[in-house]
Amino acid sequence: MDDMERKEPVFKTGLEDYYVIKNNKKMRFGYTTGSCAAGACQGAVKMLLSGEKTEAVHLMTPKGIELHLQLHDIHMDENEASCAVKKDSGDDPDTTNGILVYARAIKTNDGQIRVDGGTGVGRVTKPGLSQKIGEAAINPVPKAMILNEARRIADQYDYEGGLLIIISVPEGVEIGKKTFNPRLGIMGGISILGTTGIVEPMSEKALVQSIQVEMRSHFAQGEKYLLVTPGNYGADYLREHMPLPFERNIKCSNYIGETIDMAVEMGVKGILFVSHIGKFVKVAAGIMNTHSHCADGRMEALCAAAIRSGCTLDCARDILNGTTTDEALEILEKNNILEKTMAELMEKIQFYLNHRSYEQILLGAVVFSNVQGYLGETADARELIEKITQQDLELKAATDEEQ
User: pTM of this prediction?
Assistant: First the structure.
């Protein structure tokens, strides 16, 4: 028998024909932690009620794609059974890829089928999420999928007793610390997620939705004026240089426009952005998704502001030939027009922020660089700083009264 014959057959999940093309590459679909939990639940309940070992299950997802899921780490006895499904995120970068999501099915005498979280599934500690405080962070669609599988298999075996389904993710405790969860008030692990059961690679929609979830959590806790940083630089500057409540900041990544849109829809009264100039100089050109794949325009926006501030042709050419904003700032400083150029830039940033929201909410920005430090703030930034400071005092006072 040659080497080719000795290889084990590749396990088919049902997603082999599902992909998207991005940057001329085929990107595979995957499946969510919710699908893993539902598939593991189906397997555990089936083994518990049949008394027979099951190696794989078929799961129909809300998206209409049927998955064939292999079961791992199977344990069975008379009153309970457990197994796991390995998460496959396809070609979507995901910290949960490859982890095992377990379901443990236990017979009970109450006649009810219930779902709870075990090790590595977070617990909700703040309002504003789909689950109540104290509940496991299993989102509504995955929970419905899990319950549906448990009920379906119970009906199949004419079982009329109760079942307790416990979903656990042993690696979830550590992974949860690297996610948005602690900021949302979900402690002790990851969330069981997925509205379609399927992961589409490089999904911007999923990231925007996660930002929306975090915004809703802050809004539900009484924050009508939000403090937003696009990335780690902004968060670091906020923590080290601004007398504002760092623990209340929300990261919006490159999605400036979407963040404003969601805030308007939510009823937020205002947003203060704290950003490195490398991101927010693009806003001065009306660019509301600051990812380099969408648009650049950094040097062009800086050059336009410098020209309006009286720079020479040579200065303008040097800026356009630069590669980083720090390099451009150095050129502006050497030509003694840094302050005037930043004032022009702040005016444009304020204009495009207001234009995006149609002036329905108060918007402003504080802009800095890692080399130069504070560079400027837009016209409405000072008012927002005052409102966020006052809001924080009121929220802390209300918390103290409750305690």
Answer: 0.68
